[in-house]
Amino acid sequence: MSGWFPKPAAAVERRVATDRLAINIVEAGSGPAVLLLHGLGWDHSLWNPTVERFSSRYRMIAADTRGHGKTDKPDGPYDMAMFARDYAALADALGLKRICVIGLSQGGMVAQKLALIRPELVSALVLVSTSCKSAPSLRDNMEARIAAMDQAGPEAAAKIAAESIFSPAWRSANPAELARFYQWRAAMPMAPLNAATRALYDFNLSGDLPSISVPTWVIAGREDVLTRPEGMEEIAALIPGAQYRLIANTGHMIPVEQPEALTALLAEFLEKHVRA
Q1: Would you tell me how many other CB atoms lie within 10 Å of the CB of residue 77?
Q2: HSE-CB of 74 using CA atoms within 13 angstroms
Q3: 27-58 burial by CB neighbour count: b if 16+ within 10 A, else e?
Q4: Burial (0-12, 13-18, 19+ Cβ within 10 Å), 106
Q5: What distance in Å separates the CA atoms of residue 20 and residue 26, rounded to the nearest whole number?
């Protein structure tokens, strides 16, 4: 399948060789660098509208995480620190000294870890629909997806995933897009997706977040049942000075369900905290 959202006409897609692996990116614009990290089972194309919207003022870079999209897919196991080191290597390969990192879901977990292991690199953070620690229920949910994939095939696993990442109202109102998601997810290579899924387990940064000192906004979806708003409130409370924002009428996948509301918040954040 093609990307979830089309590539902006002005954007360039390329693979960047790092000292760890080759990472696929789409980039456009110039100015302060903004790195966009997608969630589990997606790729950079989820952020294509954001790349297009802000490339007039920023160097927008959306990347495929290890095991996803056109980035290398070495055998697992994977973990969140591995993903963070991959993105640090990408920044180094691109010659970036300071970056704003915007991460969704698993990408938000990676963004937190990156800010902790490379504090001199990360200048600002936006954490969307994410968590600072994994819960037993998360493990159970993800193992159910993997079991469904093994027993009933990838489309069955995609249907389980959809129930947790899209709100009931969105699923009801968008049957064609829901069917498209099933096809999108079912077409992905299963081994690297499973390795990326298990990277979520035993993740806990709650004791480390108070050391993050960069401007941070935490953005939650009111109807998110995967990374619930109260968990997002915890992240905002742990990071000094972080601000919490709640978007109504959306589940976990805010860029899909409420893109205009998310874009408005990102515009406000970038205007305040990311300048040349």
Answers
A1: 11
A2: 11
A3: bbbeebbbbbbbbbbbbbbbbbbbbbbbbebb
A4: buried
A5: 19
Mean pLDDT by 10 residues, the chain (276 residues): 86 97 98 97 97 97 97 96 98 98 98 98 98 83 74 83 94 97 91 91 94 98 95 97 98 98 98 89
Q: What share of the chain is helix, strand, coil (3-state, %, to 5)?
A: 45, 20, 35
Let me know: does 100 contact 34? Beta carbons within 8 Å: yes
> CA nearest 21: which of 85, 97, 94?
85
Q: What was the pLDDT predicted at 251?
A: 97
Contacts of 32 (CB under 8 A, 6+ apart): 58, 59, 98, 100, 123, 274, 275, 276
**CA gap 75, 172 in Å, rounded:** 37
Q: For CA atoms 21, 68, 222, 50, give the dihedral sign.
A: positive
Nearest-angstrom CA–CA distance, 34 and 274 = 9
pLDDT at residue 177, rounded to an integer = 96
Please give the angle made by the CA atoms of 193, 263 and 235, to the nearest 5 degrees.
65
Its pTM surpasses 0.85 = yes
Neighbours of 92 (CB within 10 A): 15
DSSP state of 102: E
